[in-house]
Amino acid sequence: MKMLLVLRHGKSPHEGDSDWARPLTRRAREEDVPAVAAFTRQQGIQPEWIVSSDASRARETAEGFAQEFTPSPELVLTRSLYLVGPEEIAAEVQSLPDSVETAVVVGHNAGLEQFAEWLGGALPDALKPGGLAIFRLAVDSWLDLHPSRAERVAFANPKALRH
User: In this structure, what CATH number is given to the domain that contains residue 101?
Assistant: First the structure.
């Protein structure tokens, strides 16, 4: 049994030198990412591994999320998760080491939300910036990732956690 957390990068301003370089907003860094990490801890989940797009806003989200846990999860940054579709995200998850039981994938919409819906069906709401969907996977190997073996066990967007 494995756990997969699908985490969309936090809110980011639309202006900047390049799309890849856009940073998180202050609220995303200081409030949203810590709130989503606290929600994860409330679910009794301790991530071991985070694989994230290397774009600034995703990297900042992954780093902020990781620092909310003790011990901090291993963090791997990759360009292969930057603005990709659900197939590429699934391939990245399938490449995780089988020794990892609980992993987080941090990326971008629309591909990340499409991946979450492929895995667990329609989400209760749109996956907003900083949003999180948590799945229990009835697999022993990440290679066996498939919707028939996935169950969404929790979902949260930062705005809902602020109230």
Answer: 3.40.50.1240
